[in-house]
């Protein structure tokens, strides 16, 4: 005697789920690029992490670049804007761009293309982080250390911690 429950005769068996066809390396690369910009190095690394052979990943990245889907210049410009808007300074952003395999010219072009004011960004960050001001030396040091950790340079830090709150 079997204890299996059989479906009623009038019910059809549940349809089987279809397996998705395996994506090509180009399709996977495109799937990553439609979500956000990636550097060539980052895109190749992500493809190999997803089980694509290194040679195929490099070919897919080259094709995406040739067709205009991937651009290190666009990636660098977007990263500079994004990090600057999130309160990071040029020293940190430049270092991060270097980790993405971009050459000096691409990094310099992206940094030069930023139309914001680094000193003003630093001042705004200090105003938000230290709403009571940086009147005493201890607060100025805290603010300066904070800005240095965020990647601002010495001139920007000095300008930000010595501003007059009534200036603007």
Note the gap between the termini.
88 Å
**In terms of structural class, how would the helical and strand content be classed?**
mainly alpha
> Level of helix content?
55-70%
Q: What is the alpha-carbon Rg in Å?
A: 26 Å
Largest beta-sheet characterization: none
Number of strands: 0
- Number of alpha- plus pi-helical segments: 9
Strand content: under 5%
Uncertain runs with pLDDT below 50, 5 residues or more?
A: none
3D architecture notes:
The protein starts with 24 loop residues before the first helix and ends in a 7-residue tail after the last helix. The chain has 168 residues and is an all-alpha fold. The model has no long low-confidence stretch (mean pLDDT 89). It has 9 helices and no strands.
Quick structural overview:
This protein is an all-alpha fold and about 170 residues long.
What is the topological layout?
Blueprint (H helix, E strand, L loop, with lengths): L24 H11 L4 H10 L4 H13 L5 H14 L4 H10 L4 H10 L4 H12 L7 H14 L3 H8 L7
Helix pairs in contact: 1-3, 2-3, 4-5, 4-6, 5-6, 7-9, 8-9
Tags for this entry?
mainly alpha, 61% helix, 168 residues
């Amino acid at each position: 005697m079997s204890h299996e429950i059989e479906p009623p005769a009038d019910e059809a068996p549940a349809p089987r789920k279809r397996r998705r066809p395996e994506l090509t390396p180009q399709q996977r690369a495109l799937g990553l690029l439609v979500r956000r910009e990636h550097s060539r190095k980052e895109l190749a690394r992500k493809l190999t992490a997803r089980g694509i052979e290194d040679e195929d990943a490099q070919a897919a990245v080259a094709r995406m670049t040739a067709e205009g889907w991937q651009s290190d210049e666009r990636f660098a410009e977007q990263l500079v804007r994004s990090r600057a808007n999130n309160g990071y300074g040029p020293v940190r952003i430049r270092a991060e761009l270097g980790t993405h395999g971009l050459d000096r010219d691409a990094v310099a072009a992206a940094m030069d293309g930023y139309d914001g004011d680094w000193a003003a960004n630093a001042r705004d960050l200090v105003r938000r982080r230290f709403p009571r001001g940086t009147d005493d030396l201890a607060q100025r040091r805290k603010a300066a250390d904070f800005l240095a950790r965020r990647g601002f340079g010495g001139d920007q830090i000095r300008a930000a911690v010595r501003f007059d709150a009534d200036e603007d």
